[in-house]
Amino acid sequence: MSKHIHLIGICGTAMASLAGMLKQRGFDVRGSDTAVYPPMSDFLASLAILVAQPYAAQNLDPRPDLVVVGNAISRGNPELERVLDERIPFQSMAQVLYDEFLRGHEVITVAGTHGKTTTTSMLAWIFEFAGRKPSFLVGGIAENFGASFKLDAGREFIIEGDEYDTVFFDKGPKFLHYFPDTVVLTSVEFDHADIYKDLDSVKTAFKRLVNLVPRRGRVIAWDGALSVDECVARAFCPVERYGFAEGSQWRISDVRYHRDRTCWSMLREGKRWAELEFGLAGEYNVLNATAAAAMAGCAGIDAARIADALRNFQSVKRRLEVKAEIGGITIIDDFAHHPTAIAETLKALRTRYAGRRLWAVLEPRSNTLRRNVFHEALAQSLALADEVVVAAIFKSEAIPPAERLDVNEVVLEVRRRGAAARQFPDADAIVAAIAPELRAGDVVAILSNGGFGGIYEKLPRWLKSREVSARA
Asked: Is 383 helix (H, G, I), strand (E, B) or coil?
């Protein structure tokens, strides 16, 4: 009889992926959540994994052999309370990942404030393309695989390293449980303002990650930030830098942005090593790909094979994803969670859609964006667009008033910086206001790390109805 594992909070992206991995390993997997919705509900249903809702103590009948507690679950949850009362064995997601999947593999962890999902997906695809049969886990749908995870026979397990906290009884970052052999470090900025008090505390977490890498391992680190320099300064393993700096081992040169592709040269120790190109836009994606190429090169994959893999890379869902093109209007979905990410997204769209009117439609939803800590930086980032629209803060009541972002002040600051800016209460009000104003050539970047009230479907639906009316 197979081991019965129950996951509390199963519909989170990482938890659902873990459920799928456990199911593939032959475990009897079940779970629960407070609200079940696509795409993870569809994914779990496709695997015949039963999901109970809402949370209730009886969801643990029959009694499981192990309970995996998601990091969004806190004391007071009826299932967690039963687990504690009855001493049902329980673990965090990160611990189960290590015990069941990472142990015995060469673990490559991709970490950083920005770019880790895309870089992990690129790296997994390069290893797959090279025939290395890697296993991987990423916090998004890697389009080359059509999945967020894969278990295979190769030696390497490539995993996105999340700096967010682990579980209610372990408030340290998840990635400290992965015991990496090698690390890619893309960036280090203040983020997750709900669990980190300042940049120094964020840097401490990344320093601890680097300190876990064995002497035989390696760190591939971005060369463009003092915060990254500080985090890798005391590594016991070799550290190789990538980026635009003259002295870096892996240097980017001669970047060319075209309508449908981006090209650049990559130098290794000052010598031309590869000519790379892919269909993605933006300098930040050039950096992501260079980090992945550097790590793959260190693992012995040929430069020509890496170049072929990147040429065929298809991106990640919700990263500059074109949701619709209607009447010459392009609607983009991007998983915006931080002012730096917003700025890089808008810069990338400027290069890809040069000369077109650019809209930034933002839902302040992440725990960082809902707070006033990045008020100035957020306004500065949004002002890179021509038209800015900001929704009300998602679940604003959860943020203390003294810490809460003032959307009106952000809008006023964006206007002072020269862009048109407005605020609306929700997705429906935004669609009603801006849809009649959109015209052929416009590019609309919808920026949120959540569902944003269904705006991704509602705006294209309105535009399609306008086209039908115009033809009638």
From this structure: coil
Strands 90-92 and 66-69: parallel
CA distance 121 to 251: 21
Residue 241 covered by a domain:
yes
Cβ contacts of 217 within 8 Å, gap of 6 or more: 180, 181, 182, 183, 237
Is 306 in the same domain as 398? Answer: no
Q: Are residues 78 and 180 in the same domain?
A: no
Q: Give the structural domain span for 234.
A: 104-311
Residue 316 lies in a domain: no
Do 90 and 227 fall within a single domain?
no
CB contact at 8 A, 393 and 370: yes
Domain boundary among 78, 95, 112: 95
Are residues 363 and 426 both part of a single domain? yes
Tens place of pLDDT for every residue, the chain, 472 residues?
A: 679 999 999 998 889 999 999 999 999 999 999 977 767 788 899 899 999 999 999 999 999 999 999 999 999 999 999 999 999 999 999 999 999 999 999 999 999 999 999 999 999 999 999 999 999 999 888 889 988 999 999 999 999 999 989 999 999 999 999 999 999 999 999 888 888 899 999 999 999 999 999 999 999 999 999 999 999 999 999 999 999 999 999 999 999 999 889 999 999 999 999 999 999 988 999 999 999 999 999 999 999 999 999 999 997 777 878 899 999 999 999 888 889 889 989 998 999 999 999 999 999 998 889 999 888 999 999 999 999 999 999 999 989 999 999 999 999 999 999 999 999 999 999 999 999 999 999 999 999 988 899 999 999 999 998 776 666 5
Task: Collapse the DSSP code of 79 into the 3-class scheme (helix H, G, I; strand E, B; otherwise coil) and give the result.
Answer: helix
Q: How far apart are CA 21 and CA 27, in angstroms?
A: 9
Give Cα separations from 227 to 185, 302, 329 (angstroms). 11, 31, 39
Assign 211 to helix, strand or coil.
Answer: helix
Q: What domain count does the chain have? A: 3
CB 418 within 8 A of CB 316: no
- Containing 194, the helix (H) or strand (E) segment is none
pTM of the entire structure? 0.90
Amino acid at 378: L
